[in-house]
Write a structure and sequence with these properties.
517 residues, alpha+beta, six-stranded mixed beta sheet, 20 strands
C-alpha cells in the first residue's frame, strides 16, 4: 500500500480543496463439511437500490448444524481494521423451498446461520464506501464504489465474504452488468457475452486479490518483457484517458522490469485508475493498494498532467514492486491470512520498506531521476523518520501495527523502512566489492521461498544472514529488532559520501555500482 501526502496536499491547497488522506493455522481435526464443490457468487450491477447492490452466495452442501458467514475485518496490504461488514444490510439465508433460516448477526462482520444443513442460498445488500468516507477510515484504494450506470469499483473483499470451512475451494463469481460498461481486471472472463462476466479462482484468497472496475471502456494494453499490462481509467469528466496515462506508465514499467531482471512472478498485471471528483461526495484518500496481479489507484482528477504523471510514477512503481515482497516473499501470517482475526508479521521493514526503497532506487538506476534527486529523497526520509519514534523496534511495531501505540508509527515503514533497505544494500555492496546488492538478496529469497512457500517470521534474519554476510545479520539485530537509531552518515560514508547534505557529486566505484545500471 502507498499513500500520498505532501505533494498532493500542496496541490489541493492551491486549488482550494483538502484531502483526507484465513484462514487460521489448520487444526488437527478436519471440518465436518463437504468441500467437493465450489462457492458460487452472483452480482447484478443492473439493479441498484438506495446506492446498494445485492450479492447472492450459493454454498456447497453443508452437513453441520450451524455455520458462520464472514465479511473481512482486515485485508492484506492495508494494515488497518476496516470492518467491511458494516456496509452489509438485510442479510438473509434460505433453504431449497425459499424459506428463511434463522440468522444471528455476530459483531460487525459475521452472521451465524442455524439449520445450516438446509442452506442453499445467502443474499445481502452492500453499500459502497466512497460516498460515505466521512463515516469511516477505509483507505480509498481499498474501498468500493457504486455509481449506477457509470462506475462500479469492486474491491471484491468489500462485497464477497466466506465460510471458514470453504476457504480453500474454488469460487465462481458471475457479474451481470450494463452492456455500456466493461470490467477491467486481471482475471479471465469465461463468459463471452457483453452483459455478463464469469470469473473462477481456486480459493477465496485469490478472489479477494483481484479487483474489478466496471466503467465506460477506456483502457490500453502493452507488453513488457513477457508481461501483459492493462491500464484502465475512469475519469468522471473525461479530462484524462488511458491513452494519456499510458506513455509514462509504459516507460516506467519497462524500466522496472529492466531493473528486476529475471525476477518475474506474474504474466499479467492491471492498473485500475479511479479519478475522483472532489466537488462531490467521493473518494478522498489518494494512493494505491497492491495485489499480486493488479493495483487499484485513486487520484484527484483536477491534478495537472505533469503532477499526475509524477504521482502515478511514484505510487504505481511502489505497488508494482510488491510483486517481489510480500506477494512472492512473505511470512506464514500472510500466506494463511486470517481476515477476521489477523496475526501480523514482524517484517514490514521488508514488505513496505524494501519495496519503497526499490521504488526510488530503480528511478536513479534507470535514469528516470538524477543522483541529486535520489539523495534528496533519502535525506527527506531521514528527516521524516527522525520525527517519529526512532527507538521503537521495527519488528515490534510491525507485529502490533493494528493497535496503539504502534499503529501511529505505521507511516514510518515508508521512511525508516526504506532507509533500512538502503543500509542493507550498502552493506552488501561494500562486502561484495559492488558485485551484489539487496536485489540479489531478494532474488535468492524468492528462490528459497516463493508465492506458495512462506517463511517463519522468527527464521528470516538467520536466512538473510546465511545468504549475505554476518554484518547484515548484525545490522538487523541492532537496528531493526533493536532500539538503536541508525547512524545514517556512517553508511553514506561507506559509499564515499561524506557530505551529509549530498552536495558532493564526486564519483567512487562503489557509488557507481550502487546507483548505476
Amino acid at each position: 500500500m502507498r499513500k500520498t501526502f505532501a505533494t498532493l496536499f500542496t496541490i489541493l491547497l492551491l486549488t482550494g480543496f483538502t484531502a483526507e488522506a484465513q484462514k487460521k493455522k489448520a487444526k488437527a481435526q478436519k471440518p465436518s463439511v463437504a468441500i467437493t464443490e465450489s462457492v458460487k457468487v452472483d452480482i447484478d450491477l443492473n439493479i441498484v437500490q438506495d446506492d446498494k447492490i445485492m450479492v447472492t452466495v450459493l454454498p456447497p452442501k453443508i452437513n453441520i448444524e450451524t455455520i458462520t458467514y464472514n465479511i473481512p475485518k482486515t485485508v492484506p496490504g492495508t494494515y488497518s481494521t476496516d470492518n467491511y461488514g458494516k456496509f452489509v444490510d438485510d442479510f438473509k439465508a434460505f433453504d431449497a423451498s425459499g424459506k428463511e433460516l434463522t440468522v444471528v448477526r455476530d459483531g460487525d462482520n459475521s452472521w451465524n446461520i442455524s439449520e445450516a444443513k438446509k442452506l442453499v442460498k445467502v443474499t445481502y445488500w452492500v453499500n459502497d464506501t466512497f460516498d460515505v468516507e466521512y463515516t469511516h477510515d477505509i483507505f480509498s484504494p481499498a474501498g468500493t464504489n457504486i455509481d449506477e450506470g457509470k462506475n462500479f469499483l469492486l474491491n471484491t473483499h468489500g462485497f464477497i465474504g466466506y465460510f471458514k470451512e470453504f476457504l480453500q475451494i474454488p469460487y465462481t463469481l458471475s457479474v451481470e452488468h450494463p452492456t455500456t460498461l466493461w470490467g477491467a481486471t486481471s482475471m479471465t472472463d469465461s463468459d463471452k457475452s457483453d452483459a455478463k462476466d464469469v470469473f473462477t479462482t481456486p480459493r477465496y484468497a485469490e478472489l479477494v486479490e483481484n479487483p474489478i472496475m466496471y466503467s465506460k471502456p477506456d483502457h490500453t494494453t502493452f507488453n513488457v518483457n513477457g508481461m501483459d499490462i492493462l491500464i484502465s481509467v475512469y475519469s468522471p469528466t473525461g479530462k484524462y484517458t488511458a491513452a494519456m496515462i499510458t506513455p509514462e506508465m509504459q516507460k516506467m514499467m519497462t524500466a522496472q522490469k529492466n531493473f528486476l531482471g529475471s525476477f518475474n512472478s506474474t504474466k499479467k498485471y492491471s492498473v485500475l485508475l479511479y479519478l475522483t471528483d472532489l466537488r462531490k461526495k467521493d473518494a478522498k484518500g489518494f494512493g494505491a493498494l497492491e495485489h499480486p496481479t493488479a493495483t487499484t489507484v485513486v487520484m484527484p482528477e483536477l491534478l495537472p498532467k505533469k503532477t499526475m504523471d509524477e504521482q502515478m510514477k511514484d505510487v504505481v512503481s511502489h505497488e508494482f514492486f510488491h510483486i517481489v515482497t510480500p506477494l512472492t516473499i512473505h511470512a506464514k501470517q500472510i500466506q494463511d491470512f486470517d481476515y477476521n482475526d489477523p496475526k501480523m508479521s514482524e517484517h514490514l521493514w521488508m514488505y513496505e520498506g524494501v519495496t519503497e526503497y526499490f521504488a526510488n532506487l530503480f528511478q536513479v538506476n534507470q535514469g528516470l531521476i538524477t543522483e541529486p534527486d535520489f539523495y534528496k529523497r533519502m535525506r527527506d526520509k531521514i528527516r521524516n523518520a527522525r520525527s517519529m519514534d526512532d527507538t521503537m523496534p521495527f519488528t515490534e511495531m510491525s507485529r502490533n501495527v493494528l493497535v496503539p501505540p504502534y499503529k501511529a508509527q505505521y507511516n514510518n515503514v515508508y521512511e525508516k523502512g526504506a532507509l533500512i533497505g538502503m543500509c542493507i544494500d550498502i552493506i552488501i555492496r561494500e562486502k561484495s566489492n559492488g558485485q551484489r546488492g539487496i536485489l540479489d538478496l531478494m532474488q535468492k529469497l524468492s528462490q528459497e521461498y516463493g508465492v506458495h512457500k512462506a517463511f517463519d517470521d522468527s527464521e528470516l534474519f538467520a536466512k538473510i544472514t546465511s545468504l549475505t554476510y554476518p554484518e547484515v545479520g548484525e545490522f538487523l539485530t541492532t537496528y531493526v529488532a533493536g532500539k538503536t537509531p541508525i547512524p545514517y552518515a556512517d553508511y553514506f560514508a561507506r559509499m564515499g559520501i561524506t557530505d551529509f547534505e549530498f552536495t558532493d557529486t564526486s564519483k567512487t566505484a562503489l557509488k557507481d555500482a550502487w546507483l548505476k545500471k
